[in-house]
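Supplementary Methods. Inverse-folding protocol.

Structures were first reduced to a C-alpha cell string of length 484. This string, shown here, constituted the complete conditioning input.
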C-alpha cells in the first residue's frame, strides 16, 4: 500500500517539534473527526473512507528520503528528526463503519493517544474522509433519484486528478452505483466496469450502420450502441434496430442503446416505442449527458423510458457541493490515563465544539426505523425500554420522549494500542450495508429537496458539561479583564 506519511500540513510537524521541545510529547489527547453541516442541503451523509484511513495508519512511518527532505527545510532539530525516524502510531481509534448514515457534529472517527502521534493524523484523515464521504453521499442521492434504475459512474476524465477518480469511484460504489468506467478502480477494488464506445468509434467508419455492425461483430453478446452521433430517431435508432435484429437472428442478445444528448425524455420515449414495435422489447435504454440527481428526478417525473443512467462530472466532482468541511478537533487531554474535557469557544455558535470523550447512540423503534441520534459521553448508559427525554441543544424547548426503543452505538473499535482490531469488510459488503442503512430511515429524511431534519441531540450530561465549561471560560476571561 502507498505510504502517505508525508501527506500532511507543515504546521502538524512544527507543532510536533514544539511538543517535544516543551516536554509535552507524551501527553495524551483525544481528537474527534466531524462535520458541521450536511452537503447538498440534504438530509444525511454517508460515511466513507475508513478503509483508506486504516491503510494510512498501518503504513505510517517516515522513510529516509522523508527525513532528508525535512532536514533540508532547516527548521527541524536532529532530536526531532530522530523521533520521526522511530515514529509509529500506538494509540486507539474508534470509527463509524463505512456506509453508515451520519449527521453534523457526530464523531465519525475518535483518535486517542500521545499528542505527538495524534497531531500528525489530522490532515491525511480529513483528506481521505472528507472526499469519500462527500462522493458517497452524492452517489446515494443520484441512486435515490434513479429509483431502481442502474447508475454507472462515468467520471474519471473529469475528476480532479487520478486519486479523485479512483477513490471517487470507490465512494460512488458505496453510495449505490453499480459499476464504473474506471478500469484501475475496477482492478483495485473489484468494482464492476462498464462502457462501450464513444462517438469517435462511429465517426471512424464510412457509415453509422457499418460502425454498429463492426461493434456487434466484436462484442455480439455485449452490444450496446451509441445512437446520437448524427440523428437519434432518423438514423441512430433505426440502424441500431437493424443490428439488434441481426444479432437476435444469430442467437445473440442485443443489449440496447445509449442516448448522450438532446431531450432525453422525448428521445427515450420515441426510442422505446420504435424498439418495442421492432420486437426488441428487452433492449434497454441508457442515458448520459451531464446528469445529476435533480435532472434524473425531473426526467423520470416526465415519464422517460430510461433503464440506466451514466453519471460523470456532476458526481465525481460533487459539482454543487464541492467540499464536506470535516474538521479534526481536540476533545480531551490526559495524563497517565486521566482525561480532562477540552472545549473550543467561538463567537460563531456552530464552531463551538462538544467536549469530552464521546460516543454516538442511535435509537430505533421496534419496527427498526431510526428515531434519533444522541451524542453522549462515552461512559453513559441508556436502558432500553426506559423512557428517555431528549432535547435540541440549541432550541432547548424542543423535546421528545423516546419509548419502547432499542439502541446501537455507532463507533466501533478499529485500533487498540496501535494494532488493528477491526476486520475491514469487502467493498460489496459495505455497499449492501449502506443500502440496508438507508432502509432504516424514513423517506422524508432521504428526500432530495427540503428533507425532514433528523434529530441529533446531546445527552443531558454532555449538554451540562458543555455549559459548565463555557461558563468557566467566560468567568476566567472576565476575571482577567478585571485584573488588567
Amino acid at each position: 500500500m502507498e505510504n502517505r506519511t508525508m501527506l500532511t500540513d507543515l504546521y502538524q510537524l512544527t507543532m510536533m517539534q514544539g511538543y517535544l521541545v516543551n516536554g509535552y510529547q507524551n501527553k495524551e489527547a483525544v481528537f474527534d473527526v466531524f462535520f458541521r453541516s450536511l452537503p447538498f442541503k440534504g438530509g444525511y451523509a454517508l460515511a466513507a473512507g475508513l478503509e483508506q484511513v486504516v491503510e494510512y495508519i498501518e503504513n505510517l512511518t517516515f522513510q529516509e528520503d522523508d527525513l532528508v527532505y525535512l532536514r533540508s527545510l532547516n527548521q527541524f532539530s536532529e532530536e526531532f528528526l530522530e523521533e520521526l525516524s522511530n515514529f509509529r502510531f500506538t494509540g486507539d481509534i474508534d470509527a463509524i463503519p463505512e456506509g453508515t448514515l451520519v449527521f453534523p457534529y457526530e464523531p465519525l472517527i475518535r483518535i486517542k493517544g500521545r499528542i505527538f502521534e495524534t497531531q500528525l493524523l489530522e490532515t491525511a484523515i480529513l483528506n481521505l474522509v472528507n472526499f469519500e464521504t462527500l462522493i458517497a453521499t452524492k452517489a446515494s442521492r443520484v441512486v435515490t433519484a434513479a429509483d431502481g434504475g442502474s447508475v454507472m459512474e462515468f467520471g474519471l476524465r473529469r475528476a480532479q486528478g487520478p486519486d479523485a477518480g479512483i477513490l471517487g469511484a470507490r465512494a460512488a460504489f458505496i453510495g449505490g452505483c453499480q459499476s464504473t468506467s474506471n478500469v484501475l478502480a475496477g482492478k483495485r477494488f473489484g468494482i464492476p466496469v462498464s462502457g462501450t464506445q464513444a462517438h469517435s468509434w462511429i465517426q471512424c467508419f464510412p457509415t453509422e450502420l457499418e460502425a454498429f455492425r463492426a461493434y456487434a461483430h466484436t462484442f455480439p453478446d455485449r452490444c450496446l450502441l451509441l445512437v446520437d452521433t448524427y440523428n437519434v430517431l432518423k438514423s441512430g435508432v433505426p440502424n441500431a434496430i437493424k443490428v439488434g435484429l441481426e444479432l437476435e437472428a444469430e442467437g445473440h442478445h442485443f443489449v440496447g442503446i445509449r442516448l448522450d444528448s438532446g431531450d432525453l425524455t422525448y428521445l427515450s420515449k420515441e426510442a422505446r416505442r420504435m424498439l418495442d414495435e421492432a420486437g426488441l422489447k428487452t433492449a434497454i435504454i441508457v442515458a448520459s449527458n451531464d446528469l445529476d440527481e435533480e435532472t434524473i428526478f425531473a426526467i423520470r417525473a416526465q415519464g422517460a423510458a430510461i433503464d440506466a443512467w451514466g453519471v460523470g462530472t456532476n458526481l465525481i466532482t460533487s459539482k454543487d457541493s464541492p467540499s464536506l468541511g470535516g474538521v479534526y478537533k481536540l476533545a480531551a487531554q490526559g495524563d497517565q490515563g486521566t482525561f480532562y474535557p477540552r472545549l473550543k469557544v467561538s463567537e460563531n455558535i456552530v464552531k463551538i465544539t462538544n467536549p469530552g470523550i464521546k460516543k454516538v447512540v442511535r435509537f430505533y423503534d421496534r419496527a427498526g426505523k431510526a428515531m434519533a441520534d444522541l451524542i453522549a459521553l462515552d461512559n453513559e448508559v441508556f436502558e432500553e425500554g426506559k423512557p428517555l427525554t431528549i432535547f435540541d441543544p440549541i432550541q432547548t424547548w424542543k423535546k421528545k420522549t423516546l419509548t419502547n426503543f432499542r439502541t446501537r452505538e455507532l463507533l466501533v473499535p478499529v485500533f487498540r494500542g496501535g494494532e488493528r482490531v477491526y476486520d475491514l469488510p469487502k467493498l460489496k459488503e459495505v455497499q449492501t450495508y449502506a443500502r440496508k442503512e438507508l432502509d432504516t430511515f424514513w423517506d422524508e429524511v432521504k428526500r432530495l429537496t427540503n428533507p425532514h431534519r433528523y434529530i441529533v441531540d446531546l445527552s443531558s450530561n454532555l449538554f451540562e458539561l458543555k455549559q459548565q465549561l463555557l461558563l468557566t471560560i467566560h468567568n476566567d476571561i472576565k476575571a482577567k479583564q478585571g485584573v488588567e
